[in-house]
Q: What sequence folds into this?
């Protein structure tokens, strides 16, 4: 039982490049979400999904796309990376109450 | 607007003492609150939660108090240990049918051996 698995753990992108951050969970949770965390700050919600085929925007969705084709996977796409997207990204799932977070992906855009 | 904020950005306590971390929220419609612990280089970890129909909830060495009158939330850690050193976040959620969880900026707790 791996819980929430994020890949990659580290990534450096050039401005304008695209990439997908992967998130997979094996807890059969319906709710999944993506957050970004900037230095000295709390987590800000980017996008979330309440089940396969359903996604919605969070607090800071601009520049990011998501899809939810299966219960297990919730990838986050950056279509054209910008330096402002340099951050640590966390994926989370939630059962009835408690949320479980992945270990994070540290992304640097140069 | 909605916001969740903390009174103290940093807190240092002696090992064995009790710690109290405070949080203020502004949205009176929020009905569910969660405390998370984040250690360096790791994702947040659930500590304890409380619903708005309660004013106190206890876990193992932790107690969460909710004062809806002044929109204040606190986390009390008894007999603080070096392993408690981390950043603590309070988060706000408008119930399980509304899944936007809003985090506060965090408080860094340092335990002095």
A:
């Amino acid at each position: 039982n791996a819980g929430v698995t994020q890949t990659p753990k580290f990534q450096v992108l050039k401005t304008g490049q695209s990439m997908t951050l992967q998130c997979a969970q094996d807890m059969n949770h319906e709710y999944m979400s993506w957050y970004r965390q900037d230095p000295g700050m709390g987590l800000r919600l980017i996008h979330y999904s309440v089940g396969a085929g359903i996604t919605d925007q969070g607090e800071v969705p601009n520049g990011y796309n998501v899809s939810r084709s299966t219960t297990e996977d919730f990838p986050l796409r950056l279509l054209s990376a910008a330096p402002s997207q340099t951050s640590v990204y966390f994926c989370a799932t939630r059962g009835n109450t408690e949320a479980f977070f992945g270990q994070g992906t540290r992304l640097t855009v140069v | 607007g909605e916001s969740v904020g903390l009174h103290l950005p940093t807190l240092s306590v002696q090992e064995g003492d009790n710690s109290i971390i405070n949080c203020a929220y502004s949205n009176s419609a929020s009905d569910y609150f969660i405390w998370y612990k984040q250690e360096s280089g790791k994702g947040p970890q659930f500590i304890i939660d409380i619903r708005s129909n309660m004013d106190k909830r206890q876990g193992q060495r932790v107690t969460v108090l909710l004062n809806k009158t002044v929109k204040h939330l606190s986390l009390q850690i008894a007999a603080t240990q070096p392993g408690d050193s981390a950043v603590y976040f309070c988060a706000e959620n408008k119930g399980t049918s509304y899944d936007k969880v809003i985090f506060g900026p965090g408080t860094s707790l340092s335990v002095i051996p």
Q: What stands out?
A: The mean pLDDT of chain B is 87. Chain B touches chain A through 20 residues (CB under 8 Å).
